[in-house]
């Protein structure tokens, strides 16, 4: 439940603090006063898309903060590692340049995370939702949400996924003979070219290093010969001199034991010099090469470089591409055999899809019968006594007879008046009827929807008289199980409120300001009188408003007792 809403520098609202409660919360005010801005602020704090136009002119940023009960959000909070105690505090800052930031209990979150959380908190029914009812592509979704077991839906989706995967693989095998031969010739040529190259992993770097070594062999040989001569070549070389020094120091250590460590160091140095001399000798011998070896390396490097440029792959990529070409050629050569196998598997998958689609149709028809009954009953309570509401199932034509959503087209039909045939909602329903149908559906769906707060922005479009009274009564009935917020222009709806807020716009210092004022009983009477008679508030309109409030209180008292 939404308990507190703080709005700062949003459109014409400089600052407003609103305390909401359980039951039916109603917002009224003159057209253009800013009633929908409060709804926009709720949407903004719940992650809806915002723009810089939402920020009050001249302000650096806009701010919306909302406090909700934690109940129902525990799993989301745990998953996102956010701690909340007694209340869930959500904050959205919107900069003048349109950039925004979101926080939950002081922790920064993304707009996507905020939308996930919002789905657990509030269901906002905007002014255009009734029009969505005319979009027949949404009707199947409404029906599934109402009463189709998720396990049945998931079972069909898995079957259809397996079918489409097989169909895609089969389609990739089915090509004409000319294309098949052209592709086979191309693959054979590439395989032959790469196989003749006898590719080996790591070879290119290895032979490049050997080529570079041989390219500088003369200079390297001179350096190595000079170093070897100094180490062990002449009579007075470094190795023999170090060995002699070690012998003399060892003799000295016999009289002065503290020289033993120096003697050991010289012996170790002699061993190290001997190892280095042997390493240089072996490396020098490995430099013996012929011009033919250098030419061979250059030829090999040229071939590998050419292949790498041609196929836009490095050495490892060429080896992997060779395997890929072999697999493609095999798949083409054995395409007929593979195709026959896939066709058999596809037929089995289609059979499974049809079975699961029929099972899904049965579940939907069962849900549709209940939905028809429930919607019709709700609409009768909304002053549409002669309405008929039906769910139409039309089998899909052609092969395979099913798609991603099942084997039927589903749409809602209605007849608004006695004696009229059922027809498409878009052709029959007026604006007021659309509003009431959508309210009826919302009420039915709310029974299975755990979201604790419902917001209706001008649900009264096209409604008046007795119908408006029934809409008010229905909204109050919904509010017995959920917190309901409603923006309205109708006194019949406003009179049913448990809490009533006046949205008032006025000019101060050549700027426009909007205030949100909670109304007491006297204030409610004056606002209802204004809704009835405009600025001409008289003792008679005030008495009529008082009578309407009293009648609504009796209605709520009687319904509460039953």
SSE layout and pairings?
Elements: E1 2-10, E2 13-19, E3 24-28, H1 35-45, E4 61-69, H2 74-79, E5 87-95, E6 100-104, E7 107-109, H3 111-121, E8 122-125, H4 129-132, H5 139-147, H6 150-173, H7 177-196, H8 203-215, H9 217-233, H10 238-255, H11 260-286, H12 291-311, H13 315-333, H14 335-381, E9 388-395, E10 408-415, E11 423-424, H15 425-428, H16 431-446, E12 453-457, H17 465-478, E13 483-487, H18 491-494, E14 499-508, E15 511-518, H19 521-533, H20 539-561
Helix pairs in contact: 5-14, 6-14, 7-13, 8-12, 9-11, 10-11, 14-16, 16-17, 19-20
Whole-Å distance between the termini? Answer: 25 Å
Number of strands: 15
- Identify the strand order in the major beta sheet: 2-1-4-5-6-7
Compute the CA-based radius of gyration. 42 Å
Query: Number of helical segments?
Result: 20
Query: In one word, what is the shape?
Result: elongated
Please state the structural category.
alpha/beta
Q: Unreliable stretches, pLDDT < 50, 5 or more residues?
A: none
Strand content: 15-25%
Average pLDDT over all residues: 85
- Which percent range fits the helix content? 55-70%
| Main sheet record | 6 strands, antiparallel
Task: Identify the notable features of this structure and list them briefly.
15 strands; 562 residues; alpha/beta; 6-stranded mixed β-sheet; 6-stranded antiparallel β-sheet
